[in-house]
Design a protein that fits this description.
12% strand; single chain; 3-stranded antiparallel β-sheet; 6-stranded mixed β-sheet; globular; alpha+beta; 733 residues
Length: 733
């Protein structure tokens, strides 16, 4: 920190800022930037303080101390330089120093007024902040490509797309017109890393500037997709090489900088902790790429397997880096599993005869993933590692928090409210992680007063009389002996049905992968509090409990415990493999949800009624929903957890099914209910019958209240259908 030009001990204590304080602040920011654009080396803030103080003298308020003991003027200067000025793209600020950018110099020329200059940086900062926090959607075809889903993938794509375009064109994303991605810059970077395998972050000694810009853009491709590296660290990696360019360096565009905040690839600390291995591997691969014929270089952009083979053949390339670049360049063909042994393990564990395995691990893994995506209705399938075990996650399209809301509604857990702000997780968070965090948060409140105790009736055999003597059992078992005694006692205990449910749910959640350290500690605390409650036997029925005045504080937690124990599975497969998971069949969930909400709106509707189809009773139908009109069935509907195409076309099989139901029940109207929202198509009037099949679409992303209102309106539209005893299948010309 620079020496203060004023003697703090002789100055009167200021009582507040003077009217000129804001104007002096923005003038100092401009003075600091004007000094930076003239410097050819990075400098630290203390040098900028001296330069700005010489042009804008300090006042008593400026040199007064904040609550933390820092000089007010310099705290304010540093905060603005490293916040709005840096994220506007006008400055590189790292632990190795500050360096103005070309964009910063242009901004000084464009905004000669200090207040305008400052306000422009603030406007860009707010745009940057909104973009980095934005929830983005990604357009991926789950039928033909591996989908990664979630906002993290969309943000990572936004960061790397301009850099990939520059690589393919031999240009630069940060400084268009510079031959950053040409062979000369790649070779210079490779040779530097051979000579300096562990340089400092600024890569002191690297030349020319094109190689420095190349290194910065390579860092964007290497760290941009990572989900286990914070955005500030990603940006520092990209800024480092730019601090020591001969001329003013390009800035990090605010859009690219914002996109670096999120990611979708879990690289692991073993790889993240070796940055120069990552960069040198990329440099070696890039030199090898330039050594290929032009046709071969161009082919890798359209052929993912050609890119994979080229990366694998390059000398000195870490296979994890090669896999990372494969998923960056061709995300539709590669998963986020970076270690070859992990990819092979997934193929071995999940491959089936239907996958038509070829022996090529990456191609086989893509085939398996496409099958799993299809089985999950197009949802993204993710592979990961947790506690040394391979983890397969299917990410629901509507988000984990919304799935829990729907589960609560379908199971009638009226006391369970799932608040996204309370849970504070990413939109693409794992379902088990969201459930575990919500469980811990609810347990902190529900168990704050200690465990709930209650009376539990037990039959015991004792040597002394306690409770009530069971005379019949005493006579039949003891043949008139007076000891031991067969008694029934009421124990005042923690081992109640409610506590058994809660403790068993906590232990089940502890077994799930992906639980963070903080949540794990909370679950273990629940286990300690309820250690005297017996754990339920996996697979056995859940004990019944009734909401009362005494257990009212536990109702929401008991709802979560019910959800957990109904959907957490622990299975043993062949060998000694144990599979833990929180599984939700979304098709069954949608069916149960519609059935419950529809029956609440109109109690005449009943779910899953089985009826004979033929006269001999060998064939059966089981519609999802039937309406009892009092004198017979007056309505039929079937739920479909499917997404209709843009035209809203329904599959033939779904129509066949409803026509059969209508013919069997003697109804002229049938209803198909889909889970994709949107405008429904017109009713299908089936030729050869008098059946009209109406299509309805529910939006599962709606709030619980909106969804209830939507189903209530649907119940009014379904109503009783007019009976038609003449409906039959006939032949037509």
């Amino acid at each position: 920190m620079t020496e203060n030009p004023l003697d703090l001990e002789t100055l009167p204590a200021p009582h507040g800022p003077d009217p000129d304080w804001p104007a002096r602040t923005v003038r100092r920011i401009r003075h600091a930037m004007e000094a930076l654009v003239e410097l050819l080396e990075p400098v630290f803030q203390v040098e900028l303080q001296d330069a700005s103080a010489a042009l804008e003298p300090l006042t008593p308020w400026d040199v007064s101390l904040t609550n933390s003991g820092a000089v007010r003027a310099w705290t304010n200067l540093g905060w603005n330089l490293t916040t709005n000025i840096e994220h506007a793209g006008w400055l590189h600020a790292t632990r190795d120093g500050f360096r103005a950018t070309l964009e910063g110099r242009a901004a000084l020329s464009q905004h000669p007024d200090p207040q305008d200059f400052f306000q422009s940086s603030v406007d860009l900062y707010y745009q940057w902040d909104a973009r980095r926090k934005a929830t983005l959607d990604s357009a991926e075809d789950s039928a033909t490509a591996i989908t990664h889903g979630g906002s993290g993938f969309a943000h990572a794509s936004g960061a790397v797309t301009p850099v990939l375009a520059a690589w393919r064109g031999g240009d630069s994303a940060l400084l268009p017109g510079l031959d950053a991605w040409r062979a000369a810059a790649a070779e210079a970077l490779r040779d530097f890393l051979v000579a300096e395998p562990n340089p400092d972050a600024t890569m002191r000694g690297l030349a020319p500037d094109a190689a420095r810009v190349l290194a910065a853009e390579m860092w964007v491709l290497l760290v941009g997709p990572l989900s286990d590296m914070v955005g500030s660290s990603k940006r520092s990696r990209a800024r480092g090489p730019l601090l020591r360019t001969v001329v003013l360096p390009p800035g990090l565009p605010w859009e690219m900088s914002a996109h670096l905040e999120q990611g979708f690839v879990h690289a692991g600390q073993a790889l993240i902790a070796t940055p120069w291995v990552m960069l040198s591997s990329f440099a070696n691969m890039l030199v090898h790429w330039h050594e290929r014929p032009a046709e071969a270089r161009e082919a890798v952009w359209d052929d993912p397997w050609a890119f994979r083979d080229l990366a694998a053949a390059a000398p000195g390339v870490d296979p994890r880096v090669a896999a990372l670049l494969c998923v960056v360049v061709h995300p539709g063909s590669f998963t986020t599993m970076l270690r070859p042994v992990d990819r092979q393990a997934i193929v071995t564990a999940l491959g089936t005869d239907d996958d038509a395995l070829t022996g090529d691990t990456e191609k086989d893994l893509k085939a398996i993933t496409l099958r799993l995506q299809a089985e999950a209705g197009g949802a993204a399938v993710r592979y990961d590692q947790a506690r040394g075990e391979l983890v397969v996650r299917v990410a629901p399209k509507i988000g984990a928090v919304q799935v829990l809301r729907l589960l609560a509604m379908a199971d009638g857990a009226a006391d369970l409210a799932v608040d996204e702000e309370q849970v504070q997780v990413a939109d693409d968070a794992d379902l088990s992680a969201v459930l575990a965090r919500l469980f811990v948060l609810e347990a902190e409140y529900a168990l704050a007063a200690g465990p709930l105790r209650g009376y539990r009736t037990e039959d015991q055999t004792l040597t002394v009389l306690r409770g009530r003597l069971r005379l019949r059992d005493q006579h039949l078992r003891r043949f008139g002996q007076l000891s031991p005694l067969e008694v029934t006692v009421d124990e005042w205990t923690v081992d109640t049905a409610e506590n058994r449910l809660i403790r068993s749910a906590a232990l089940s959640l502890l077994a799930l992968p992906g639980v963070t350290a903080g949540v794990e500690a909370g679950l273990r605390r629940v286990d300690r509090i309820l250690v005297d409650a017996e754990r339920l036997v996996p697979g056995a029925g859940l004990p019944a409990w009734q909401p009362t005045r005494l257990n009212a504080r536990l109702n929401a937690l008991l709802g979560l415990a019910d959800l957990t124990l109904r959907h957490v599975s622990v299975e043993s497969a062949a060998g000694e493999t144990v599979v833990h998971g929180f599984r939700v069949n979304m098709a069954h969930l949608f069916e149960r949800l519609v059935a419950r909400l529809l029956s609440e709106a109109d109690p005449s509707w009943s779910p899953q009624v089985t009826l004979p189809l033929d006269r001999l009773g060998t064939l059966e139908i089981r519609p999802d929903l039937l309406r009892d009109g009092g004198t017979g069935w007056s309505g039929v509907a079937d739920t479909k957890y499917k997404v209709l195409d843009e035209a809203g076309k329904v599959s033939n099989a779904d129509i066949y099914q409803l026509v059969t139901y209508c013919a069997r029940l003697g109804l002229s109207d049938g209803h198909l209910i889909y889970a994709d929202g949107g405008t429904p198509p017109r009713a299908y009037e089936v030729i050869g019958t008098e059946a009209a099949i109406a299509v309805h679409r529910l939006d599962l992303t709606a709030s619980p209240d909106e969804l209830r209102a939507e189903v209530s309106a649907l119940a009014a539209r379904l109503g009783p259908a007019a009976p038609n005893t003449t409906l039959r299948m006939v032949e037509t010309a």
